[in-house]
Structure formats: C-alpha cells, structure tokens
Automatic annotation (TrEMBL):
One of its GO terms (cellular component) is cytoplasm. This is Nucleotide-binding oligomerization domain containing 2. The keyword Repeat applies. InterPro entries: CARD, DEATH-like_dom_sf, Leu-rich_rpt, LRR_dom_sf, NACHT_NTPase, NLR, NLRP_HD2, NOD1/2_WH. Keywords: ATP-binding, Cell membrane, Cytoplasm, Immunity, Innate immunity, Leucine-rich repeat, Lipoprotein, Membrane, Nucleotide-binding, Palmitate, Repeat, Ubl conjugation. Its main location: membrane. One of its GO terms (biological process) is regulation of apoptotic process. It is a lipid-anchor. It is found in: Basolateral cell membrane; Cell membrane; Cytoplasm. The lineage of its organism: Eukaryota, Metazoa, Chordata, Craniata, Vertebrata. It comes from Dicentrarchus labrax (European seabass). One of its GO terms (molecular function) is ATP binding. Residues 68-147 form the CARD domain. Belongs to the NOD1-NOD2 family.
Amino acid sequence: MQKEYQDIQVPGRALYTKARQLLDLVYTKGVDTCGLFLAALNQVLPEAQGVGLSFSGCCSNLEEKKKYQGTSTQILLTQRPSLVSQLQGCIDGALKALVISGHFSSADCDDVRLPIHTPSQQARRFLDHVRSKGELAAKVVLQFIQQKQESGSQLNEDTVTPPKELFKYQKKLSSSVSAQSCFLSTYGGTSHMSLDDIYTEGQLELSHECVDVHGPLGVEDIVGTAGTMNKEADTVLVSGDAGSGKSTLLQRLHLLWARGAALQDFLLIFPFSCRRLNSEHRELSVQELLFQHCCWPDREQEEIFQFILDHPHLILFTFDGLDELKQSFSDEHRLCCPTQRAPVHILLFNLIQGSLMKGVRKVVTSRPEAVGPVLKKHLRKEAFLKGFSPSGIDYFVRKHHRDPTVAAKVLESLQTNTALLGLCHSPVLCWIVSQCYKELLGCGEGSPQTITDVYLMILQHFFQHQSSQSTLGIGWLQENLETVLHLGQLAFEGIATSCYIFTDRDLETCGVTEKDICMGFLIQSKDMSSTHSQRYEFLHVTLQCFFSGLYIVLSNDTDRSTIPKLFEPKGMREADLRSTCFSACLPSTYQQEQVLEGESTAVETLNLQITATFVSGLLSQRHQSLWIHCCPSAVIEKRAKQVVRCLSKGMQKHFKSIPQPVEGEKKSMHAMPGFVWLIKCIYEMQESRIAKDAMSKLEVDHLKLTYCKIGPVECTALAYVLQHLKNPVGLQLDNNSVGDVGVEQLLPCMHICNSLYLRNNNITDEGIRKLIAKGVQCDNFQKIALFNNQLTDACTQHFSHLLKTKQDFLSIRLGNNNITAEGAKQLAEGLKFNHSLQFLGLWGNEIGDAGAEALASALESSKSLVWLSLVGNGVGSAGACALANIIKNSTSLEELWLTENCITRTGVECLIQALKHNTHVKSIWLRNNYLSLEEVEEMAQRESRLVF
Ligand code: ADP
C-alpha cells in the first residue's frame, strides 16, 4: 500500500531503521508475502549475496509449512494478546534475559523502555523487537515467560528493584493510610473505638452464578482470583446497601495493608473517596490525582510516578462510594495518557475501565442500584456485601460492650424482638442499637420495631449525651427543635442536590451553629490531601436521610408538593434546586444544567427513597405525640394523610401494571423496582388499616419477588403487609437473602401462602424447623421449594412431621442440599403416612441406594405421587430395582427422573419389567448412568418410555 511505503520511506531516517521496518512489515503480512519478498531480493541482490538467503517460511511444501507454524516467532504472533498481558510487570526481567543471551543491546533495551509508553505499549514494542531479532531471541522470551509461570511469581517480580525514594514514599503513604483508617468515624463523637476493637466480618459473597466458589469471602479474596468473570478487566466491585459496611470493609483493607498484614503483593495502595472527589473541581492528571489526593512524595515525584507506570501490578487503587459521585459512570470519553489533565470523574472512569493505568487493580464500592450495564462490562468481578450474619451480630455486640453482662442483656433483648434482630443485620443499625443499649434496655414493651424507631432512638441518645440532665423529659424534641431544623435543612438540601460534604458556608446558610455541631451528628470530613478548609458530613448517609425526613415533617418552609414529589423521586431535584445551591456541590454551570434537565441518578433516587421511608415512619400515628409543641397538629395530620395517599397511589400503579393472565394460567405479579420500598414504607407506618387497604386491591394468584434483595428486614415488612391479602397466593422469593431470621419474619403471612418458593436463600435446618412448626397450622399451605439452601438430614424430621400432619400437602422440593440416606429414611417415615404428596424433588443430594430403597418402600402404595426426581443422587441398580416397585403398583406416577446416577443394566431391566405392568408412567429419565451405547440403544427399543 502507498501509505505503508511512505511510512517506511520517511526522509532522513537511517537506512538500517528503514530496513528493519520493512522486514517487520513484510513479516506481518504472512508466509506468501515473505516468499515474494525473498524472490524480489534474489532478483535485486548480486548473486553472491542472494545465495546465502534461504527462508524456511518460503516453501510450497505443506509439511514444511506446518513446521513453520510452530516456530517461536510464530507463537509470538499468534499468542500476542496473552503475551502482552503476561509481560507487563516483568519486561525488565525479559530484557535482562535477552541481554544475557546476546540478542539485545542496551540500545534495544532503552528503545523498549521509553517512558512515554504505557506498560502494554512497552510489551508490544518489546515483542516487535524480539521478532525482528529472529527465532532464537523469540525462544529465549518464551522460555523466560514459561519459567515465570512455573514459579508463579508474576506479582512478586523478583527483578523489580524499586528506587530508594519509593520505599520512603511507601512508608509515608502507609502511615497516612493507617492514621486515616484505624478509627471508625461513627464512634468519633462519643467514645473512641479502634477498628481492631470492633471490626466484624460481614457476609461478602460472589454472585449466584459463581458456582465454583462457596462460603463467605475474606478481605484478601476481594483482589484474589475467586469469582473472576473477566480476566482482562482490572476493577473489582463490592456492592451493598447503605450501611452494609462497604466503607468499613475498605477501611479494614487499607489498615491491614498499611500494617503489612495483608495484600502485601501491592507496594502502594491509593485510597479515594468519591464523596470527597466531588469537591475537586480542577482538571488533574493521574499523577496529580494520586499525589495531591492521597500522599505527596517528598522527593523524586517523577521517578516514583514512573515506577507506578512501569509496575501497575504492584499498585492498588480503591474508590469508595462510586454511587456518590455526581456523574454516572460512562465509558464514552476515552483517555489513555497518564500525564494528560482531565476532570476528575473522567480520570476515574478511565481508570475503572482500564484505558488509563491498565494493570493497576482497582476496588470500587457502590450501592447495587447505581451500577449500570456499562460499568458491569468493565468489571473483573463483583462481590456483594450483605451485612452481618446472625453470629456476626452476636460477635459485634460482644465487642461493642466490654461488659459481658451488658452484651448478654442486649443480645437477649434482640432475641425477644426478632424484627429488631432482623434490622441488626445491617451494620449501621447494629451500631445504633448497640450505641443506644441503655434506651433499648429501658424501653420494655415499646422496644423499637422499625428503622424509624431505631433512628429516633439515636436522636434521643445524642441529645441525652449533650444534656446536663440525667434523663431527658417528654419534651426532649421540643428542647432541641432548633438543632433538628438546622441539621434537617442541611440534610434535606444536601439530599436534593446530592451533596454529602458541607462547607462552613453551607452550614451558615442553614443556620447550623457550633452547638448543633457539638451534638455529634456531623463529623469533620477526613481528607487525605488536607488542603481544603473545614468540611463536614453526617455520620452516615442514612442519618442525613433521617434528618432530611425530620425536616420534611417539621419544617414550615417545605411546600405542599414536597411529600408527593418525595414519593415520586424524579421531580424532586428540579423543584428544590432553585431554593439553594450548595457551594461545594454545584461548582459548574455544566452540572447545574445536567441537574435541571431532571436526570436524577440512581443513588439520588435511593436516598430520596430512604428519606421517604423515614417520613412514613415519622408521620405514623404512634409517633404523633412527639411532634406536639414542635409543629401544629393540623399540619402533621395533613402531611400524614398525604403520605397515606401517596402510598396507596404508588401501590395502585404497581397493581395496574399486572398483565391479564393468559387463559388457563394463574394471574401473576412480578414485583417491579420500588414495590418492596413501598411495602417498607407501609411497614414503617405500623398501621394495619393502611396495609389492609393496600392489599384489598391486589388480586393475584402468584407474587414473584425473585432477585429483589430481600433480607430479614424486607421479610418483616412483607409479612406485615401481605398478611392482609384477601386470597391465598404463591409467594416466590427465590434468589434473595432471606436466611433463618427472614424465615422467622415471614411466619405471620404463612397463612395466606399456598406455595412458598425459597430457592437459594441461605436457609438452614433451624429456619425449616420454625417454618414447618407454623406451616402445619396453615390450611392453605401446600407447596414448598427449597432448592440450593443449606439443609441437611436434620431438617427431614420436620418434613416428615409435615407429611404426617398435613394430608393435603402437594409438593416438596429439596434439590441441591446436603441430604443423605439418613435424611431420605426420615422423609420416608412421613411419606408412609401421607396420602396427598404429588411432587417430591431431591435432585443433587446424596441419598444413594439406601435412601432410594427407603423412599421406594414408603411410596410403593402411593396413590398421589405424580413426579419424583432423584437426579444426581448416587443411586445404583439396587435403588433402581427398589424404585421399580413403585412403578409396578402406582396408578398415579407419571414421571421418574433418575438422570446422572450410577444405574447399570440390571437396574434398567427391573424398570423395564415394572413398566410392563404400568400404562400410567409417561417417562423415566435415565441419561448419564452406567450404560454402554449398545445397551442404551437396545433398551430404548424395548421400552420407548425410557429416556436416555
Ligand atoms: P456503607 O459504606 O455500606 O454505607 P459503612 O461502612 O459506612 O457502610 O458502615 C456504617 C457503620 O456501620 C460504620 O460506621 C460502623 O459503625 C458500622 N460497621 C459497618 N461495617 C462494620 C464492620 N464490618 N464491623 C464493625 N462495624 C461496622
């Protein structure tokens, strides 16, 4: 091509460079071009020179061609992408190997190492150079890479010799990181609690699709290989609700690294808070971002940054709260030069997607709702933080209260109030409950039920702490009304403009005084760069939402449309922006324009939803006495009515979207986003009249709430509302985090469930014990599905009891649990006395022949069983022969599933014989058993109902 010709014939370029480039170009064009090139050379060169030229690639013979495909140089070409990624971080070592073998000069090395190139560009240049040096050089490189792989030491690159200054910088950075992370800010106002003293492992899990990884993850696993979905990507996402412990987890990770106790493969960790990055309005380069926002190197900045660029695999960035960044993630504006300046969010997005600083591992936290498909595309893996487990709550409370008698009392009171226990799965609520233990232990019957109750408790607790009186009187709120309104306005306007960090000026605008600050709800914002003046933030974003809710309830300044808009979050920002613009939050006209277009991001909607939940709770009848003397009761009543109307209207909207069922099918509602939130708002109101009213208009047979992030808290609210349904429903809660506590919370609505689907929900035998104890008393309850939980033989006695007691029970599905022959025997005990069960599913357990025999003998004379699945249970021919007895006698069985077992010919013969006496059975599934192809063919011909 003309262009290629011009590229090589650049005037003034040294001849040998041109020659090299020409050779490279010809080489990349393949064997035929090389052949043509050689032929051309032979023509132009004097004969004596041409004779020496022979080229193994230039061959017409097929066999020789094949040989050529496998040469080392060819491998460099065909496996280039993977070699590029393997070479990053060990280029120095590879260069050294080539220098030693005599293939590379120091000029070659310098050429590869040019600092303007990114590590991947360097790797590519390196490979090009090697190819130009020929087969032996390529061989040296491949050997080098192989050795690296064998020693598995890519991360601990032994050839890396960081410059002296880097160690000084590392020391400075780690002591700064350590200082920033050794205390938890939520304890700042009242007592000092080090992270070590209180840190409790949260439940960190990979997505359900990662079947290869089981059990909770530890801090190290976050950057480990487990659960990797996309090896090319560098960014790990940790997602979880507000208060689930995301920031604390990162804090822990930072602290462990700074102490040398974890993640030591990383020489440098740079922690960022997206909340704080919002206040950076300058355009920065990556270097400025790192050094100005995390830690400034005292000397040799360039050298240190170059080291970072050269060794990306030794560096980790963390970005806390991506959801709080003002701009939603986008990968449109690409940037790949680390020295180019750009707005901080553009830098951040390019870092996350890997256009900038490819190879540097990044850990990002966010609320899941704020993670869109564009970001997902760039994720290496995703982990979900699901708060504390029941034992985590126990551990946390014991750590929080050094006095074991107090801890025991708090735990005891949680056991008697399971709604509150459910709330404590959220670490932030567990923290409040522990913090307010005196109030909790003193409130007897009136112990908190709702999230609003818990936040009211902390409000009172903080005021009490600052008060000179030993206990606050009834008028405690009135006495502190000014503070509530000042902080309320700050919070409210912050929520409306997505502002979480406030300047002195913002505080002044809302009238926040020194005294208000002293109450402890606001803390000084930590800033690694410490270049900014004093800034404040609420102890936690949920506390900001709570104050915002208080403001909506109590203020004279909010207008009539505030509550309706709050329940329809889209309109909120537009309306309230006009009133105030916080200096820290809305720097540029660009952002204002974006906001005024009414595009609210997912996290804004989420914060408004949390605020709305609090408003519902605060305006409930049971809290109205609090507002006497704070706000005219007519105003409170009017606002309460508005909330009730909004909730009812919101529900109606959901019900209207239910499609009419196809004839013959059940009417089914699949919960849309926002449905569970409305249910939670209704729960906060604690007025059964409202719940009843909402449910009176819902007429469905099946309610599907799969993948709705339903944990114990949501179960409490669901049960509270759904118990008022007029007609029984099938309640489908598959793929959530219900757990045993959630199961217990669901019990009040069991009587309206005809079927309960709880697949994949972390339920253990203990949860089943409680569920069945209630289930046997519920007339409507007929079906249960518990695929993929943590059930063992210990739960089967309860099912046995259920089968004996309920002679109208239809279906039990227990697939993918840990039930063995013992469990099957227990089940058989129940089955013997049951005359109703139609479906029994035990797929993926371990019942073996003994279990199959026990079930078979119990079901031999069943007149109800229609479908039985023992797929993947280690059942052999003895089991199959026993099961043949059911077939012989049954008049109801239609399908028997025995796929993936170890049945041999003998077992199948028994089944064939039995089928001769049975016309009712439609199919027996036998794929993947111990049968030869010939056996399969022959037996399939004899009996067409066998499916192989
Ligand atoms: P998120 O970032 O998900 O909103 P945070 O990490 O800020 O949640 O947690 C809120 C509060 O909950 C913390 O300030 C702390 O008091 C408590 N907390 C969270 N996680 C833990 C944990 N793993 N151990 C102890 N306390 C925790």
